[in-house]
Amino acid sequence: MTEKATVEVSEIHWLMDMFQSVDVGLVVLDREYKIQVWNGFMENHSGLSPYEVRDKSLFEAFPNLDKEWLLQKTDPVFVLKNRAFTIWEQHAHIFKFKNYRPITSVAPFMYQNATFIPLTNTTGDVTHLCIIIYDVTDVAISKIELQEVNKELQRLSRTDRLTNLNNRGYWEECLQREFLRQRRGHSVSSLLIFDIDHFKKVNDTYGHAGGDEAILHLAKILKKSLRETDIGGRYGGEEYAVILTGTQAKDAYVFAERLRIMVEKSIVSYNEFEFQFTISLGIAEYTDELNSHQNWIEVADSALYKAKVGGRNRVEIYAHPDKSEAKED
C-alpha cells in the first residue's frame, strides 16, 4: 500500500470514529425514507444497531413517529434543496428516546432540536436527506422550570394569601376589563359586594385569629358557590366582591340569597369555640349610566349599605335613578 493510500485509509478511519462517537444523532434517509446511515448516538438511544435498521423504512422501524408532521418538514427539503430546522418548543422530539441524564432525570424523554440537510449527487440532484438530532433536554427543562416559576409568581401576585381568592388589585383589573367589555358590547353583568355583619364583635369575642377563621370560612363557601365564569375576590378586610358575568340583577339576587342562607346556616369551628355569623349583600347591574368601574363599585356598595341599614343579613339591589323614575311614572 502506498503512503498516500495509507494516509487516506487513516483519514477515513478517524472520520468514521468521529461520526460514531459525536454527541449528536446522524441519520441519512433515501428518497423512500429508508435508513442508510445510523450513527452511534442513534444506536445508543434507540437500542437498534445500524445493521438492524439498514434499508428499513423509518416509519416501519419507528411506528410511533409523527409521520404527517415529519413529512411536512422533510418533503420541502427534497424538493427545494433547502435546509430546514425544528426546535423543541415547536415539536418536543422526533424520536421519543428516554432521558438518561442524571441532572435532568425529571424529564420523561429527551427533548430534541433537529436540522434537515439535503444531500446531492454529482449532478446536483437531491438523493438523500440527513437529519441531525441534538439533545437539548437540559436547556428545555431549565426553560420549562423557569416558566413554571414565573407562572407561580404571577399567580401569587394576584392571590390573597389568607383566602386564596383573587386579591383586590387583580380582581379590580378584571372588573375594569368587564366594564369596558360591557360598554362595547352592551350585554349584561352584575356586581355583588358583601361583608360579614358585626365583624368587630367577632374579633372582640374570639380574637383576630378567630376573625381570620371567619374570613377563611366565608371564602371557602364562596369558592364552592362560584360558577366558572364568575370572578370572585377579597375586596378588603372582611369584604368580598364577585363579578357575575352574563347575569341580570334578578338572577344575581338568587345567587346572593343562596349564598346568604348557606353562610347563616354554617358553623365556624375555632379552637374550642363554635360560632355563626351572617352577611349583608349589595348588587348592582351594569348600565350605560355608569361612567367607570369605580362608579360600578360605588353603586354596589350603596346597595350593601342599604342592606346594613335595613337590618343586615339581607340582599339589596341597587335601584338606578332612571329605573326608579320609570317606575314612579
From TrEMBL:
<keyword id="KW-0808">Transferase</keyword>
<dbReference type="InterPro" id="IPR043128">
    <property type="entry name" value="Rev_trsase/Diguanyl_cyclase"/>
</dbReference>
<keyword id="KW-0548">Nucleotidyltransferase</keyword>
<feature type="domain" description="GGDEF">
    <location>
        <begin position="187"/>
        <end position="320"/>
    </location>
</feature>
<dbReference type="InterPro" id="IPR050469">
    <property type="entry name" value="Diguanylate_Cyclase"/>
</dbReference>
<dbReference type="InterPro" id="IPR029787">
    <property type="entry name" value="Nucleotide_cyclase"/>
</dbReference>
<dbReference type="GO" id="GO:0052621">
    <property type="term" value="F:diguanylate cyclase activity"/>
</dbReference>
<dbReference type="InterPro" id="IPR000014">
    <property type="entry name" value="PAS"/>
</dbReference>
<dbReference type="InterPro" id="IPR035965">
    <property type="entry name" value="PAS-like_dom_sf"/>
</dbReference>
<protein>
    <recommendedName>
        <fullName>diguanylate cyclase</fullName>
        <ecNumber>2.7.7.65</ecNumber>
    </recommendedName>
</protein>
<dbReference type="InterPro" id="IPR000160">
    <property type="entry name" value="GGDEF_dom"/>
</dbReference>
<dbReference type="Pfam" id="PF00990">
    <property type="entry name" value="GGDEF"/>
</dbReference>
